[in-house]
Design brief:
The structure is a homotrimer. Chain A is an all-alpha fold. Chain A has one domain: Orthogonal Bundle (Ammonium transporter fold), CATH 1.10.3430. In chain A, strands 1-3-2 form a three-stranded mixed sheet. In chain A, a hairpin with a 2-residue loop joins β2 and β3. In chain A, α1 packs parallel to α4 and α13 runs antiparallel to α17. Chains in contact: A-B, A-C, B-C. At the A-B interface, α3, α8, α9, α12 and α14 of A face α1, β1, α2, α3 and α4 of B. Chains A, B, C: It is a multi-pass membrane protein. Chains A, B, C: Keywords: Ammonia transport, Cell membrane, Glycoprotein, Membrane, Transmembrane, Transmembrane helix, Transport.
Chain lengths: ~450, ~450, ~450
């Protein structure tokens, strides 16, 4: 059934093992425990600085890390199992990409952010950042879901993680914009990168596989596992690397309210846009999450709870509208086949989130932030920037993210077209059986009687 | 297929958007960051009181909050997916109700508990309490599951959250009973409220939909996801708002032992009550959780581990007996159609939990509690109450909860009968296709061959 | 359908209720709150020692505990739902075994580790250890999955928990080996114990049930829920009871990198070993987890991130090779029917983990560990052992674990053969309908049309 080009027997092991070997060698050369994970260094600090074990950043961030980890592996993984015959690939390629991506991004982000004396120092914060970076790749994966081989996905991960690291360094360290929850660095970048890759890999005859592009009843329930976990733990995502104390606390709360409001807007518009007033699982599974994206930049700021709710409502509305009206147009007019609709969940809400971040930055005053200005807008606190200039830099950061996504996605898209990486034919898309030993029956849906006689009768 | 009254195209958007708009306006007027989420206020405290960031209540409660959040959205949501053709509605209406309920209860509970200088101050504890309140509504949802339109559910949420806030205020602040895990305020109130609503909405011809009321093999496995999450995280539920230190620690442990013992009792009685000695998934999915309800009041007290295990065993036994013998009687004699059997999981165990709480309060002595009396029974510590009087007040609180549930449920039930809210006909219950775009086939089970020829042959 | 011997109507309630009653009595006699869960004792400490509530071990360990809890109940439970017609039993017997096991192990481990003045003192650490112990039993359950009655499983739990406690006491307190994540005490012991039990219970005519031993499409997705949770939370498992500060932090990080590398190795070898280059869900579901087992002993040591990645890669490779080549041989030559392949996921990686632990111990120097030597290798820090001797004791501990598993498993296997415990016949294995009320159709797969006419036509 699989064409020769997608036979993974040699290619997949080769790429996995060679990349893993290179990664291990680079880790051996460059990666070291940081002062909080190194036995000797931490105990030195315990003795010298009158620090206590409870000061170890582990206790401030590990619960958030595990929530983020759950979003990456369960959230993204199961969200994409909505396809009726691509559940194995969705959850398992998600697993593969993220497992490779987090190692690779430890190196890339380490070179840019954690390089001390020629070594990359790692701890809980680098783990969170590595997971964040894989989030961007998984967003792009959503755009090309079902249409790319695992080798293509690994190659995409290799390049996208690298570009993510450069883009993030420019936005956070050169432009010095704030983006704790990654509206720009993760969502906007990941979405438009994936959309451009999908454009470059455009399949004119994808209709040959369209009968497999939908869901079945239980695959939609599997997808809801992903949705609900993403929704619940998004407050942890946005707050995972914000400053200790009020910052983490406030970021969580703003995200919580944004998502709650977004959910109501999504249900409302899903029913409104349907001719018969029926709800669409695609909207609930995806658009209800846009509220997390929309406050990714601003949640750590003094957004106020009602501000968060407005942001979330707007995000739910534009996302649902996007699924209804924009996705078909992207497909038919712009030749962008966006399997999961990442433009609606991450693209537009990411831009919205960047804009909201800039607007809230604009409103920053010493009166509102007090001593907390230091944590949220250190440059304003130090008098190096005004609120207005910070807002402008926030917009600039958005442009950087978009530019990196569009240019990077184009280049990587063309790289992925190289025949050596393999690619399913237009009639083989959205089909697990190309890559997987699928239980029992190759042609039917697997869930069926196990009684052979019963099959014959049918 | 859907009757006119359940066409949600106008009603659902209208209710969602208007209520969300009202909520946002009320938040804008009343809701403010508390001293731990406000940048200026918290940094003031850091400077003045020699507080450190690690004192922020966020670090004491956020992991528990996320566990509670998981119980509300995954636990309740998936527990109700056991129905073969109502999984979309179960998990998604659960999502909708909870997302609206937590916003509304922030306001209602805020007016009663967090009102300072005309403002409601919000932080991690108000978030936990808001989630708690939605728990009561979701319990009621279990009683009417499959028989109410989403608009009816939103209206029910609006009123039930409001009544919950008043009831809780009376129990905790006027009667001054203890009820950290909500045996009375959440479980008893939520269950009897829902049962009375179900009674008022009695459907004489529900047999027309009974063929959809059961489960299929995989829907029972989806439901087990809900069950296990509720079971695992119940210790976090009961302890989420207890005092720091030994209180949270002890509450967790008591709940853990109660649930473990309850599980064995449930398996035992499930096999015992079945003519062929076979286990019933309904019992395992539900009755095994009754141990969490049964120590909802007493888990923060010096219940002792073996006391917790006795409580859990009793709860498992009465709950399983309830499913076997009481649910059919409620249906046939009292005209209470209790879809999920919330009477067995939350109603009776809630009353049991209230009673156990009163008994354990009765046994409180200065010797047992020492300096911890202040946290668990402040009025006894201050000499304002004896253990005996505290026990009496605990019983009084149960009566208050029951009264609010019965009267409130009756009134709200009659409100829900107004035709404008829409309601499925007796033959349309337990059917997702009334409210949802269901994949592919409207009449068959969705999981099926995707090959059209195959269908024709069958 | 069920043979008389597996009718559970009397036996299962009898065993559950009698064992629960004995457990409650033993708890009443022996189990007491420890100084951190007892109201009086903790408040004494607050007053005397200038301790604060944040010093309560609860805050250091509860998030890890809940992750471990999730691995035990969701992770193991759903991992085993891969069987097409044994999902109810997999997740629910897992639930039953673990709920009983954690109570019983509180007693057994308490006698060995927490016995003060004739009482067992319990708190968060004893809860984690109790969950750990049930992990070993659930590993053994994987070897006999589908071939044992619930009464047999309870009896196995009773004995295995007891042997686990003795074995663990010898390894940790007499041999004084380190094994925080239980490569030896949990994985090696649990796997070989289960394999020997399976050998003793060898079924020569199991081919009569082989048609039910495979998966269906959606059962493989349910199993992936288990896999991903085990994978994500394994860092919490290995670190749950390590020392505060750098130890917990470092253990988490080492495990994270080991698992990530293991995942790539697993995908590589799964494709490589398949004639058509297709991936096998069995490998992804299981072998990708071996990286957690392989650093169970060494993750708290100064393994270094790249060392962890080498360990994980090796584990993924040997585990995948095991599934491909060793499991069939164990079955055909050694008469060991290992349903879940626990030899590949826990057995060999457990031995590998023990060996890696010994090697890393051998490399321990004062320079590397500094003041942290006290936490990781207290005997080396005190000068009572050299690194070489510690390494030898680590190997000795492995031999102890293997000896306990082999001898204990043999004895318990023969006990389980007693007819009074019931056992399915060779043609009744892997079949829920023997123990469960299965929805609707006893012979067909349950997921099917609910329209009776439709069935007739088929």
């Amino acid at each position: 059934m699989g064409s020769h080009s997608t036979n993974m027997r040699v290619k997949l092991p080769l790429f996995c093992l060679v990349l893993e070997a290179i990664t291990i060698v680079l880790f051996a050369i460059f990666v070291r425990y940081d002062h909080e994970t190194d036995a000797s260094a931490w105990h030195q600090e315990l003795q010298n600085n009158s620090k206590t074990n409870s000061d170890n950043d582990f206790y401030y961030r590990y619960p958030s890390f595990q929530d983020v980890h759950t979003m990456i592996f369960i959230g993204f993984g199961f969200l994409m199992t909505f396809l009726k015959r691509y559940g194995f690939s969705s959850v398992a390629f998600n697993f593969l990409i993220a497992a490779f991506g987090l190692q690779w991004s430890t190196l890339i982000q380490g070179f840019f952010h954690g390089f001390h004396d020629g070594k990359i120092h790692v701890g809980i914060e680098s783990m969170i950042n590595a997971d964040f970076c894989t989030g961007a790749v998984l967003i792009s994966f959503g755009a090309v879901l079902g249409k790319t081989s695992p080798v293509q996905l690994i190659v995409m991960t290799l390049f996208e993680v690298t570009l993510f690291g450069i883009n993030e360094f420019i936005i956070l360290n050169i432009v010095e914009a704030k983006d704790a929850g990654g509206s720009m660095t993760i969502h906007t970048f990941g979405a438009y990168f994936g959309l451009v890759v999908s454009r470059v890999l455009y399949r004119p005859h994808l209709e040959k596989s369209r009968h497999r592009e939908g869901s079945v009843y239980h695959s939609d329930l599997f997808a809801m596992i992903g949705t609900i976990y993403l929704w619940m733990f998004w407050p942890s995502f946005n707050s995972a690397i914000t400053a200790h104390g009020d910052d983490q606390h406030r970021t969580v709360m703003n995200t919580y309210y944004s998502l709650a409001a977004c959910t109501l807007a999504t249900f409302a518009f899903s029913a409104l846009l349907n001719g018969e007033g029926k709800l669409d699982m695609v909207h609930i599974q995806n658009a209800a999450l846009a509220g997390g994206v929309a406050v990714g930049t601003s949640a750590e700021m003094m957004l106020t709870p009602f501000g968060a709710m407005i942001a979330g409502s707007l995000a739910g509305i534009i996302s649902t509208l996007g699924y209804k009206y924009l996705t078909p147009v992207l497909d038919s007019k712009l030749k962008i086949q966006d399997t999961c609709g990442v433009h609606n969940l991450h693209g537009m809400p990411g831009i919205l989130g960047a804009a909201i971040g800039a607007i809230v930055a604009l409103a920053a005053t010493a009166d509102i932030y007090g001593g907390g200005m230091d944590d949220v807008f250190p440059l304003i606190a130090e008098g190096k920037r005004t609120a207005q200039s910070q807002a402008l830099y926030q917009f600039l950061a958005l442009l950087v993210a978009l530019a990196f996504a569009l240019v990077g996605g184009t280049i990587v898209g063309f790289i992925l077209r190289l025949p050596c990486f393999g690619s399913p034919s237009d009639s083989e898309c959205f089909d697990d059986s190309l890559y997987w030993e699928v239980p029992e029956e190759p042609e039917h849906i697997a869930v069926r009687t196990e009684d052979p006689e019963q099959q014959t009768q049918a």
